[in-house]
Give the backbone structure.
Amino acid sequence: MNISLIEDVLYKKINVAEFCQIFESDANIAIAINNYYKYVLENNLVNIDEIDINKKTFSEYYYFYKTTYGIVGFYSSIYSLLYSIYCAKNKGIPFCKDYLELYGIILQIVPDYLDCSFAEDLALQFWNEISTTNSNNKCIQLCKTKLKNAFHIEGNHYPRWVQAVEWPIKNMRPLWFKEQKRKKGTELVEYYFYDPDNLEEIIIKQYY
């Protein structure tokens, strides 16, 4: 069973971004890794607290992470999964904290009301622009300010989501938040956003 690509990541011969490029472009590699994941599950070689046993293939995990998180959360989650399924049988490889630590920084920058992949990627962009010139704490504060400005947040005027964040993005730009209203006598909350270029309004509906 050829799992050398996993070993290359864990032994730092390639990074997670390179792993993802190969995994998506080489069908044979993808099949081999999915087979290894299946082997690990069937032989109880991994702590079930570390994985979601409802996901029967590595690919299910992979594309769930890719469509759920920003790039840093995606890479951090993929690295942790690779480590879990490989090191369950192969002990002694140190866990690389770089991905997790960077993701932790991004989570400090992104507030709960902006908790979406677009905001995470934007926070990473800001972090990469300024992290070499200031201390971590100062960089985090600067990135928070830049992120709020990018979403046009003034003071405490931001949506109080009752479900997951659904901030509308158009042409790679967040729309401006106007207000939210709860429909009287119902569990419906409507969030009003608009495009500053043409004043087009978009309404996001959520329920308690």
Notes: The chain has a mean pLDDT of 93.
